[in-house]
Amino acid sequence: MSVIVRDDGFHAEDFAGTAVEIASDIKSDELVQLASGADMVRILFPSFSDGRGFTLARRLRDAGYAGRLRAVGPVIADQYAMARRSGFDEVEIPDDLAARQPEEQWKFRADWRAHDYRARMKG
Amino acid sequence: MARKFTPKVLTANDLRLGDVVYMTASGDWTRCHAEAELLEDEADAELRLLKAHGQSGIVVGAYLADAKAGPDGPEPVHFREAFRSRGPSNYDLGKQADSKRGTAHV
Amino acid sequence: MYEYSDFDEAFVRARAAQFRQQVERRLDGSLTEEEFRPLRLMNGLYLQLHAYMLRIAIPYGTLSAGQMRQLAMIAERWDEGYGHFTTRQNIQFNWPKLVDVPDIIDALADVQMHAIQTSGNTIRNTTTDVFAGAAADEIADPRPIAELIREWSTDHAEFQFLPRKFKIAITGTEADRAVIRAHDIGLQLVEKDGEIGLKVLVGGGLGRTPMLGQVIRDFLPVADLLPYLEAVISTYNLMGRRDNKYKARIKITVFENGLDAFKAAVEEEFARIRPTFSGVDQEILRVIAAQFAPPAFKNDPVDSYEAALSVDPVFRRWVARNITAHKVENHAIVTISLKEHGKTPGDATADQMRVMADLADRYGYGELRISHEQNVVLPHVAKADLPAVHAELLRAGLATANVGLLSDMICCPGMDYCALATARSIPVAENLATHFRDIGLEDEIGNLKIKISGCINACGHHHIGHIGILGLDRAGVENYQITLGGDAGPQAAIGDKTGPGFAYDEVVPAIERILRAYLALRESPAETFIDAFRRLGAAPFKEALYGENRDAA
Ligand code: HEM
Ligand code: SF4
């Protein structure tokens, strides 16, 4: 089982449709095509130290994908702001991680819009 | 082919202070190499290592390091472990200085 | 000098608070060591041989007197009274306790400093020419762009978990005192038709597989810089190898895919990203640049300086070695050597830091620099003040007149501190410096760059030393491999291994054999070691190294 994390904290799964799942080693020319028209795209993080998902999310958003975008895997609370800034709407984490890193630790970074140098540079 | 097991001490760094520590026969941690337990049985050593991995709230980076018996207790074999048990060679700091200050056994 | 904006201030304070919370969560068990490790590394905290080590960023090597004093305070209060300046223009403290680090980070924030991104698989401190803004030969001061890169790369959401560390260097001159060819990305300010732009190199790096960067763009408009960097680094983020950390640097990505394929992927990504940048970064750059305006230089006459030169041989020698021409005629650039013979290269005590800070305040417009050669620089000093500066440096043991000579080595911490080391490097440096001083050959040998690393990671730049020394572990014994012919400047080159390595106590005699061969073979004293090596090749030096021992070996 897993927990969905959003700015306001933990949630149970509430998506019922079909999601497109994208592995982090996807070929870059297939990414946009695969995602197009999907209600939700789930980008899989094989480990918290593998940051490819952040680039994939940003690329999808730059390419105009406007649907729901979820980071899935053992992402840690300290990466929540990175996920949101890269274009993810939410993060799906395994239960044991949610137990060890309770809701407050994630909500601590719900201020992900603050202090964002890159956003300031991009305008 | 299985390599012959050579005696080891179990060593790590103290989580809070960073200082080098060794596991004693009673399962406590000491800052002094000579007070470490010399592990001569491979299975026993592996068990000790597992125990140390379970103590991640106290120590970090536990591993088994080659050691040999000496007159005052186990002594390091490799020069890296000799440095860890002593301190840097460019200043009188680390354990070599602590032992002069009489704090080696804290 | 750059002063934090409110934005910087708020960010650094927020990060300090986050790190305090992360340390607490590590101690209460919410974070495992595996999870905490990248977080502490993102804040410059390593675990070394004897203790933790905190690496503090000195952005583009520029430091105010007040910041230097705060480093002295930290050294005394939470460390062992000294600090180590590194070839990455950072400072490292070798003895902090984990429980004190949040307080140290707060003390840094008090003077607009931090340790963010000095480690980890992210974009590191951007380094630059130590003489930036003072040198006579630069096209433009590279520091405003370095500051722009600092701000853009700090906490960049997409680039905190790259395949491997990522280092950018920028220079404003053809002379390249920033070793741009040995960086993941090297930038050089260039001029074309009256416009200033950037030459971009990619894929340089030292370590296990040393490579020099290749040009990926001859002329990039400054306005395109940030989107172009994003294109390069996001391409690398997806293409870089994650299966083997020794093959994870961008140099391998470029090498394995070929520059053309890599460049094509970058340009495609650049076309996507460029339109998302509105151009406000260029306005921010203008605001930044204004802060790097040079100080109002004094107009003091140089008579007293010239008088001192003619009567004081110690001063004369120091001026000849440690002074570089300034772009303003009656000023000079002062290099304070942290290479006293027999001492640890790059180390300064808290007292010495305060002396240097005071000198900067009194004679140097409040500004200091850290050089990648591990010295401290006062970039702007009126020549009239040089005798006074020299006198005070003498009193503090900081007047060693050896810049550019054999004893002015780059040396990594090696086995005395570093958990990754395979051999010591500091005592090798100490022994070399004292030996050549004692036999009186240092001046005779003249300009020479020796660089020493304690393992293959090459933090001491050994590959690009005229003479490189690499410490290895051969079956539990320290052994040192020598390379010759490397160079860090515009003629950058990776040195070649000479042959079998040398035991710890054979290193000094081995280097002496090489240098005696050089003295015998050079055309004139004006021909430096590296020039002689380029003319003669490695053969005569190898002969000097191994010839007499060949039967025994
Ligand atoms: C003491 C703790 C240190 C550790 C654990 C450490 C670790 C490393 C590692 C693992 C590499 C190889 C990276 C690679 O090839 O992928 C490396 C490279 C490097 N480090 Fe260090 N280092 C340390 C200290 C220093 C110091 C003190 C300096 C400056 C004097 C420094 C500057 C560099 C430089 C210039 C390189 C090579 C350039 C490159 O990245 O290609 N490091 N370091
Ligand atoms: S070269 Fe090796 S020994 Fe030296 S600092 Fe780097 S990692 Fe440590």
From TrEMBL, chain A:
<protein>
    <submittedName>
        <fullName>DUF934 domain-containing protein</fullName>
    </submittedName>
</protein>
<dbReference type="Pfam" id="PF06073">
    <property type="entry name" value="DUF934"/>
</dbReference>
<dbReference type="InterPro" id="IPR008318">
    <property type="entry name" value="UCP030820"/>
</dbReference>
UniProtKB/TrEMBL annotation, chain B:
<protein>
    <submittedName>
        <fullName>DUF2849 domain-containing protein</fullName>
    </submittedName>
</protein>
<feature type="region of interest" description="Disordered">
    <location>
        <begin position="82"/>
        <end position="106"/>
    </location>
</feature>
<feature type="compositionally biased region" description="Basic and acidic residues">
    <location>
        <begin position="95"/>
        <end position="106"/>
    </location>
</feature>
<dbReference type="InterPro" id="IPR021270">
    <property type="entry name" value="DUF2849"/>
</dbReference>
<dbReference type="Pfam" id="PF11011">
    <property type="entry name" value="DUF2849"/>
</dbReference>
Automatic annotation (TrEMBL), chain C:
<keyword id="KW-0004">4Fe-4S</keyword>
<dbReference type="Pfam" id="PF01077">
    <property type="entry name" value="NIR_SIR"/>
</dbReference>
<keyword id="KW-0411">Iron-sulfur</keyword>
<dbReference type="InterPro" id="IPR006067">
    <property type="entry name" value="NO2/SO3_Rdtase_4Fe4S_dom"/>
</dbReference>
<dbReference type="InterPro" id="IPR051329">
    <property type="entry name" value="NIR_SIR_4Fe-4S"/>
</dbReference>
<keyword id="KW-0560">Oxidoreductase</keyword>
<dbReference type="InterPro" id="IPR005117">
    <property type="entry name" value="NiRdtase/SiRdtase_haem-b_fer"/>
</dbReference>
<dbReference type="GO" id="GO:0046872">
    <property type="term" value="F:metal ion binding"/>
</dbReference>
<dbReference type="GO" id="GO:0051539">
    <property type="term" value="F:4 iron, 4 sulfur cluster binding"/>
</dbReference>
<feature type="domain" description="Nitrite/Sulfite reductase ferredoxin-like">
    <location>
        <begin position="52"/>
        <end position="110"/>
    </location>
</feature>
<protein>
    <submittedName>
        <fullName>Nitrite/sulfite reductase</fullName>
    </submittedName>
</protein>
<keyword id="KW-0349">Heme</keyword>
<dbReference type="Pfam" id="PF03460">
    <property type="entry name" value="NIR_SIR_ferr"/>
</dbReference>
<feature type="domain" description="Nitrite/Sulfite reductase ferredoxin-like">
    <location>
        <begin position="344"/>
        <end position="395"/>
    </location>
</feature>
<keyword id="KW-0479">Metal-binding</keyword>
